[in-house]
Amino acid sequence: MANKLKDMLDPKNSGLALTLNFKSLEDRTNFINAIDKIGKTGVPQEVPVPKSIDFFKTVGGYQYPYDNVEDIVKMIVYPETDTVEMPIVVDGVELKYAFQRVRTDEVILLKSKNPKVLDVGLEFKIRDNKVNFNYKSHPGNATTIDELILEYKRFLALLDVLFQKPVLIEQLGDIKKYFNKSLQEYVRAKELCEVLGINITPKTVIDEDNKDFLTEKLYILLVKKSIIRQNDKLNFIEMADVDNLEIGQALFAVYGRTADLEIYGEHRKIYTVNCTFGAMIQDVKLKEDGINVVYFKDSEKNPMYRSYTAYLDEKDALDEMNNIVEKREQYENAAGWLDQLRELLQV
Question: What crossing angle do the helices spanning 172-196 and 145-162 adopt, rounded to 10°?
């Protein structure tokens, strides 16, 4: 019955008129009140169910019975809508942001035509000259990381168009800051995974634990190819030849490490090249296997720290170690981990 009623009311069936036969005068009154409410608010209304609907077709100025619908279970009346598009600019490219629009004497309602990732709503109160703005984000609904990134960029561009004067909406700065921060997080995830050779979805990024800012650290090391300085101390190293070492001697220690890391549900082997500065030889002890253990200490005046780079290919790490003397100054003056993290996160 619902499909039949829908077909009768299709705009293609021009020349049709209808009569609603209500069960009572009260239902008729409530139906009229609901229609009036739609005219004021633009919000769909559930209305009393008529006993039946009679359809008439107009031919030559006369109306003739066309069809009849009964056994109606539920009826909701919707306001008339059309589509409007707002011009936005994303990465220098002109795009359109489409809205479904409802116009009444008192309000103009705009609602995202494609609310899959971001559901945006605007209510312009004509008499009060006020705007109500609302949104809901559903990043997990995006099919790909590229789609998610584009939708966030489109939303930020829309905000710039809609609210050129921040006084029009409270907390606009906080909203833009939140979405900018999230956008950059997704962009970093995409770029890092391209380097790591990992296929990700928006849900993968959202569900990632990211303990100790591992994602950001690998992004700095593997995407930006930066050197990270951390206030780590080297307690000891094992060496075969210690003939040229003396207690109290400052040592420029270079060594490699291998780590098996899990990120975005996959494992990747990372090779690091490490340079330790400020290490002073405290003691040297010979083990039973003939290997010497060199112990280190530092001082308040010259505290120990480690600077390091990372590679996905072991050969690249070995090449870096072989040329480390030429790059010693870069490692020695590298920016600290926390400073680079703050700059990356813009906090």
Answer: 160
Please list, in sequence order, all residues whose beta carbon lies within 8 angstroms of the beta carbon of residue 160, skipping any fewer than 6 positions away.
88
Q: How far is CA 104 from CA 47, 124, 296, in A?
A: 19, 10, 79
Report the C-alpha gap between 224 and 230 in whole angstroms: 17
> Which stretches does DSSP call E strand in 10-137?
16-21, 45-47, 52-59, 62-70, 75-77, 81-90, 93-103, 107-112, 118-125, 130-137
85 neighbors 79 (Cβ within 8 angstroms): no
Buried b (16+ CB within 10 A) or exposed e, 123-145: beeeeeeeeebebebebebbeeb
Distance CA 236, CA 256 (A): 14
Higher-confidence residue of 68 and 177: namely: 177
Which of 106, 103, 112, 102 has the alpha carbon at shortest distance from 133?
A: 112
Alpha carbon distance 321, 129 (integer Å): 67
60 Cβ contact list (under 8 Å, min separation 6): none
Q: Strands of 179-249 (E only): list them.
A: 228-230, 236-239
Q: How far is Cα of residue 95 from the mean position of the Cα atoms in its chain? A: 20
Q: Is the pLDDT of residue 129 over 60?
A: yes
CA 140/CA 136 separation, integer angstroms: 12
pTM to 2 decimal places: 0.77
- Greatest mean pLDDT among 69-83, 126-140, 185-199 lies in 185-199
Question: Are β-strands 228-230 and 236-239 bridged in parallel, bridged antiparallel, or unpaired?
Answer: unpaired
What the block records as the tokens of 233 is 């101390």
What is the 8-class DSSP label of residue 336? B
Give the number of other Cβ atoms within 10 Å of residue 310's Cβ: 24
Tokens, residue 42:
């633009």
Q: Are 196 and 268 in contact (CB under 8 A)?
A: yes
CB neighbourhood size of 67 (10 A): 16
Out of 74-78, 117-121, 265-269, 332-336, least confident range: 74-78
**Beta strand 292-297 with 250-263: parallel, antiparallel or unpaired?**
unpaired
Alpha carbon distances (Å) from 164 to 150, 173, 283: 21, 12, 66
